[in-house]
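User: As part of a screening pipeline, I want to sanity-check one entry by hand. Below is the sequence and the SMILES for zinc ion. Please return the complex as structure tokens so I can compare it with the automated output.
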Amino acid sequence: MTRALIVDDLDHVLEPGAVEIREVLISDSEKSVGLAFICPCGCGREGYLPTDVTTQGPRWDWNGDRERPTVRPSVQFVGGCKWHGFLTNGEWRAC
Ligand SMILES: [Zn+2]
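Assistant: Here is the complex for your manual check:
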């Protein structure tokens, strides 16, 4: 189990499992919200989970908690380390 360190900006953060709640402006009135994170396995890879309903394609449900986030469904890196697990109450747990 890995505690998700919540950071304002994931750049230069190497902590496995670190999470940034990332809001990206996609137009003057719309922004996309998602969770950027460093793979909990320690491989250093960064992932991104879109969570807003306007996103096309895969999307995760986020409970809106910015300190101890929960997202569903599970998270899996399809390439590289192939880590697979869940983020629940701010903790990463491998399947
Ligand atoms: Zn990994």
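Points to compare against the pipeline: The chain has one domain: 2-94. The longest strand covers residues 31-38.
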